[in-house]
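[stage:ingest] chain + small molecule (zinc ion)
[stage:ingest] validated
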Amino acid sequence: MTVPVRAYAATSPGRPLEILNYELGDLHPDEVRIEVSHSGLCRSDLDALDDRLGTSSYPLVAGHEIIGQVSAVGSSVTHLRVGQRVGVGPICNTCLNCEYCASGRDNVCSKVEFTIGGGRRGGFADIVHVPAAYAFPIPDSLGSENAAPLLCAGITSYAPISRHTTSESHVGVIGIGGLGHLALKFAAARGSEVTAISTSPRKADAARRFGAHNFVASSDAEQLRRAAGSLDFILSTVDADLNWLDYLNLLRPDGKICFVGASMGPIGVPAAMLIMGQYSLVGSAAGSRATTTEMLEFSARHQIWAETEVVPMSDINRAIERMRSGDAPFRFVLTHE
Ligand SMILES: [Zn+2]
Ligand SMILES: [Zn+2]
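[stage:predict] done
[stage:export] tokens:
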């Protein structure tokens, strides 16, 4: 039995999305069918739509912060039921058996499959089929429009903070956008001392509202100098190529800079500096199933979610234009009416 789907698809890089009708085939035994109600709009959706990495194929249906209701379950799915509210993030499948999957690091499984691309179509559609292992039940105390951005921006910022920091840590966050504002909230709720770092001083008030104790305007050399040697961990959420030496200078001994924003250029820092400070440069890729479940519970308990502007899916092109022009809220969430 096939199911008709209506989606907003890109037909070539950078073009406005157009309505695309297609059919989904039979549900696989390990999959669930989700009637999508909400879909976050992430910067990496734009990267995929614009083919920034040269790996996109068209027509492309993006959307990887999906919330919806399960409307059918495959024959081997036992942990989800019809009517349940679930969320899907950027990762939708792994082997579930390799050493990484078996040790709760399935996000780095070599068989990882992403929710968009590689022949898969994402949440800018009214129905998706996804492996049930990557459809996460959403706690009742999280609203759908609030929960959607947690599935990518939330897990991407929460996972490295939970992996690398404790309540004793001095945590810095570079960039106060979709990922960064959630990172500030998570780090503050975990009890760390939190420093927001942004090129734009007018974001200081917002950063404090999200839980930052300190604010460093990175455009101000004097402020950078005063913050030198103050941080144990810095999460970079920006995709710009920064002068990373400035940020290495902010670290305390044994400090780390973790990248979740994909700047494209090389990170040129002298090995001698890493040696002397015992610094580490690390990356973090979304998050595992276990960490995603933990993040959703943590967010529900601490009532943490993204600052969103909710718009109907029919306005998706206008939302994308506003993101491109820099006139965007922390997160757009699109609703299927
Ligand atoms: Zn994303
Ligand atoms: Zn695996």
